[in-house]
Amino acid sequence: MTIEQKYIDLINAEMDDEISAEDQALLDAYIAQNADARALRDELAELGNELSGMEPLMPPADLRHPVMRQVRTVTDQAITDGGISEMLAGLFGLPLIRYGMSFAAGVVLTVTLIGSDQASRQAFEDVTNLVGTMSDTETGGALSSGDSMMLALNELAGSVSLNSAGPLMVLDFDLASATPVEIVATFDNRDIWFNGFAQLESQGTSVSAGTGSVTVRMEGQRRYAVYLHNASQDAATVNLRFVAAGETLHEGQLRFAKQN
Amino acid sequence: MSKPDDTDLVQRSRKGDSQAFEALLIRYEKPVYNAAYRMLDNADDARDVTQTVFLKAYEHLDDFNPKYRFFSWVYRIALNESVNCLNKRSRTEELTQEPETKTRGPDAEMEQELRNRQIQSALMTIKPDYRTVIVLKHFMDCNYLEISEILDIPEKKVKSRLYSGRQLLKEALANRQQM
Predict the structure, then answer these.
(1) How far apart are CA B146 and CA B69, in angstroms?
(2) Which residues of chain B lie closer than 8 angstroms to A8, CB-CB?
(3) Which of A3, A13, B53, B107 could in theory staple to A19 by disulfide, Cβ–Cβ 3.0 to 4.6 A?
């Protein structure tokens, strides 16, 4: 028994809720007499149920804020310059790269790092003088991307990534927290020491460093980097613990693989 | 107080009101992300595409024709960007790994996850033209007219692609079950 094309169309239309009452009656009458048509309707209904049974996914918590940061930068700049179209044309012509786009375009970014030679093996207790702004890894061109982690907790969302260039390792934090959060980074490799801190467009992040660890305290939306010196350039693991109100929210690791 | 409609938010965004644009982003980030994910089967790519979509939408707000619906316009950008991403992907690499699957949770939940994974994998085997209409119909709940508007093709073509797409999807699923 075959199915006339007209009824195949009606079965699909029924499935899509796009069938008229008249056609529905016609289809029902046809299906009552045609086993193949019944089978097709059942198969399609099953497929439709399976597709609709797939739950919508939640977008990552850090999706929105890089977009809005860029939009706000454009808006602010346009207000200053009075020319939104030119500003937009320039901005969005740039390649949109996961890491690079998080940086606010139009903001002059410079690097304030202490050179590796200046750093002793003694960990710093006071890092106030090391605070600077961040450079874009894309335009800087020297850093290579490494391990990263995403956080989508109620209290804290965003990403942390570990990038590197020679002995320089950069822990890049792009986070938003609803409450004060303390982030403790510890290193298993004793050849690694704290080498600097930089933050983008914000104040209020505090840093303290001890031997084998760095602790950052933050609240709100923050983008900052902790610079580490990996003298041996050997493989290393950075353990990260995120704490709020004395409770550990999340623990994770970022790994640096030895470069050949 | 009622929520401002899309047209109002678009107009305010055009005048430089970033909060209005953020309201649009909040309203549509989930469907756009889901459309991209179903087209690409990769969370990182879906996130990148979603971000690109909204930045492009912002860039081209002046080109948006208010006689169309904002969501149609933004979905069209999303699908085009997803196809661009697929094209780039096919030029640079072959898919060699099955995307990650959650394996924790009760048996029923695991079974559902596994089935979802099979359906998503089957979806990836059919051509993007067919996948697009299935995504719009079954994941974005668009009707024929809306799909026609988004893809800028006649309704008749929407129907035929949908029918063929489902047929191909059924076959792909049957093949995977036999494997």
Answers:
(1) 9
(2) 163
(3) A13
Does the CB of A33 have a partner CB in chain B at under 8 Å? no
Complex ipTM above 0.85? no
Q: Name every chain B residue with its beta carbon within 8 A of the beta carbon of A71.
A: 18, 21-22, 55, 58
Q: Which residue has the tokens 């009075």?
A: A82
Residue with tokens 């030029």: B91
- Among B43, B139, B124, residue whose Cα is nearest residue A55: B139
Chain B CA closest to residue A96: B52
d(CA B52, CA B55): 5
Ramachandran region, residue A250 (left: φ > 0; alpha: ψ -120 to 50; beta: rest):
beta
DSSP A18-38: ---HHHHHHHHHHHHH-HHHH
Taking the CA of residue B15 as centre, how many other CA atoms within 13 Å lie in the half-sphere pointing to its CB? 8
Which one of B27, B58, B114 makes the best mutation probe of the A interface by having the most chain A beta carbons within 10 Å? B58
d(CA A216, CA A185): 8
CB contact under 8 A, A84 and B16: yes
The shortest CB-CB distance from A59 to any of B29, B52, B116 is to B29
Give the closest-approach CA distance of B18 to chain A in angstroms.
6
Taking an 8 Å cut-off on Cβ atoms, the answer to whether B137 and A47 are in contact is no
How open is the CA angle A148-B54-A94, to the nearest 5 degrees? 70
pLDDT tens for A198-256 read 776 556 678 887 778 889 998 888 888 888 888 778 888 999 999 998 899 999 999 88
Q: What stretch of H or E contains B80?
A: helix B70-92
Mutation target for B interface from A68, A77, A91: give the one with most B CBs within 10 A. Answer: A68
Q: Give the per-residue pLDDT at A130.
A: 43
| Tokens linked to B179 | 């494997």
